[in-house]
Amino acid sequence: MNTLFPIFVKAEKLHILIVGGGYVGLEKLTALLGNAPDTRTTLVAPEIRDEIRDIARQSPNVQLVEEPYTPAHLDDKDLVIVGTNDKAVNRQVQADCKARRILVNVADTPDLCDFYLSSVVKKGDLKIAISTNGKSPTFAKRFREVLEEILPDSLQETLDNLTAIRNQLKGDFVQKMEKLNEITKVLR
Ligand SMILES: C[C@@]1(CC(=O)O)C2=NC(=C\c3[nH]c(c(CCC(=O)O)c3CC(=O)O)Cc3[nH]c(c(CC(=O)O)c3CCC(=O)O)/C=C3\N/C(=C\2)[C@@H](CCC(=O)O)[C@]3(C)CC(=O)O)/[C@H]1CCC(=O)O
Ligand SMILES: NC(=O)c1ccc[n+]([C@@H]2O[C@H](COP(=O)([O-])OP(=O)(O)OC[C@H]3O[C@@H](n4cnc5c(N)ncnc54)[C@H](O)[C@@H]3O)[C@@H](O)[C@H]2O)c1
Q1: Which of 48, 92, 119, 179 could form a disulfide with 21 if both were Cys (CB 3.0 to 4.6 A apart)?
Q2: Measured at the alpha carbon of residue 179, what is the angle toward residues 176 and 185, in degrees to the nearest 5?
Q3: Residues 66, 45 contacting (CB under 8 angstroms)
Q4: Per-residue model confidence (pLDDT) at position 176
Q5: What is the pTM assigned to this prediction?
Q6: What is the fold, at CATH topology level, of the domain defined by 11-117?
Q7: Which residues 6+ apart lie within 8 Å of 13 measured at CB?
Q8: Which residues line ligand 2 (CB under 6 A)?
Q9: What is the C-alpha to C-alpha distance for residues 23 and 25, in angstroms, rounded to an integer?
Q10: Distance between CA 127 and CA 56 in Å, rounded?
């Protein structure tokens, strides 16, 4: 059974730590900023890829710390993603996060993750997150591509119209809900 509970996090209200500055650090930083460009992010690693340095130069909220991880790096952090090439370090970061009740993603060890990143389909305000329960990230990526292809750009207009109607509707909660369900029947 897939027991993952999906939520949409307001990352720009958080301070996120990424441990590791290699390919995985780059992939996770790109995924984060691709959704929430202004997220306050600190990335710590003794060696940091040039692509990450380029991103940091263009993103005032991304801070790079060029040194090995220590528990002090967790101070004031809300969420942590760890992807170093040293399994013992990854494990240590996970244990330190657990002790502080900070949610942590250990990219190469699903069993140690409190949450997974997902493949993300974006069409204006519509956002669809895809997970395979860790079974095949490649499937998630391919399915994202399928959905990106078939969802029309006009979806944003539909959402804008529905927002306008939603804001104009009078009556109590149940009456509004009935009206909105009626109007959107054609979408089924
Ligand atoms: C969706 C996406 C989001 C993102 O990262 O932003 C994501 N992985 C992506 C791509 C990708 N990752 C890998 C490949 C190579 C091919 C392959 O292995 O399939 C590709 C494909 C590619 O890059 O083309 C390698 C890999 N990934 C994990 C392991 C460890 C393991 O499974 O044990 C290994 C083996 C490492 C090794 O062998 O050393 C683990 C995880 N990867 C997850 C998410 C979480 C589960 C998501 C779910 O529930 O489906 C989870 C559990 C944890 C996490 O990372 O959060 C992003 C697609 C974004 C997009 O394009 O839409
Ligand atoms: N979940 C995923 O999506 C995914 C995908 C590919 C690989 N992986 C796994 O993730 C791991 C990392 O892969 P990579 O390609 O990014 O490696 P890499 O060699 O490119 O980078 C490793 C990074 O870890 C840093 N590091 C090492 N010791 C550290 C410490 N004590 N404190 C802080 N940072 C430290 C290095 O400085 C470097 O920046 C591998 O084990 C790989 O198998 C996971």
Answers
A1: 48
A2: 135
A3: yes
A4: 86
A5: 0.94
A6: Rossmann fold (3.40.50)
A7: none
A8: 19-25, 27, 44-48, 68-69, 83-86, 89, 107-108
A9: 6
A10: 25
Report which ligand 1 atom has the smallest distance to the Cα of 31. Answer: 6
Indicate the residue type of 169. L
Tell me, what's the ipTM? 0.93
Give me the pLDDT at residue 33, please: 98
CA distances from residue 24 to 74, 172, 181 in whole angstroms, order as listed: 19, 49, 43
172 pLDDT band (50/70/90 cuts)?
confident
Domain ranges of the chain: 11-117, 155-187
Cα(148)–Cα(141) distance, rounded to whole angstroms?
11
Distance (angstroms) between ligand 2 centre and the Cα of 146 equals: 30
Q: Within 6 Å (CB) of ligand 1, which residues are found?
A: 27, 31, 105, 107-108, 110, 113, 116-119, 131-134, 136-138, 140-141, 144
What is the radius of gyration, based on Cα positions, of the chain?
A: 20
Q: For 96-154, what is each residue's pLDDT tens digit?
A: 999 999 999 999 999 999 999 999 999 999 999 999 999 999 999 999 999 999 999 89
Beta-carbon count within 10 A of 124 CB: 14
CB 90 within 8 A of CB 111: no
